[in-house]
Amino acid sequence: MSSEIHNYIDSQTETRKERLLALRSWIVDTFPEIQEFMKQGMPTYQLGKNWISIAAQKDRISIYLCDSRHLQNVKKKFPNLISGKTCLNIRDRDRFPLKEIQTSIKAALKSKTSILNGRSVSTRSGDKIRSASTTALRQNTRRKK
After folding, report:
1. Contact 52/66 with Cβ under 8 angstroms?
2. What CATH number is associated with residue 36?
């Protein structure tokens, strides 16, 4: 763990610190090849093109996933935890659904799909992205003569 991430976690209240450490420990144990760094002021974990970020807020922790599809199981059981499309907000006083969060994180980091301008695009390892949506995006960005 970098000193920057250590200081970030260490500066939190006890409840948030415990939750952040539990998530971080599980992530680095489950994905030993994961890249861990600070991005936009919060610990971020990246595996290939997939990522998650974890932030401590005023009275909660927020978990941001690279793709909203992986929040479906949490959304069904805990609809009040979802904020926006890809964010989970767990207040300090709320139950911490660790198992469901772990399932969502695992699905997000192992996903073979990346996001391009808000659209899901299937990828093959090592290949360039090729699909109808990227072709359409490419055509929309070309200069018109």
Report:
1. yes
2. 3.90.1150.200
End-to-end CA distance of the chain: 52
pTM of the model as a whole: 0.70
| Cβ neighbours around 24 below 10 Å, total | 18
What is the identity of the amino acid at 123? T
Burial tier of 91 (Cβ tally within 10 Å: 0-12, 13-18, 19+): middle
How many domains does the chain fold into? 1
* Amino acid, single-letter form, for residue 101: I
CB atoms within 10 A of CB 109: 21
Q: What are phi and psi of 73, to 5 degrees?
A: -65, -35
Domain that holds residue 69: 3-110
Query: Looking at the domain assignment, is residue 132 inside a domain?
Result: no
**Given this model, what pLDDT does residue 112 score?**
66
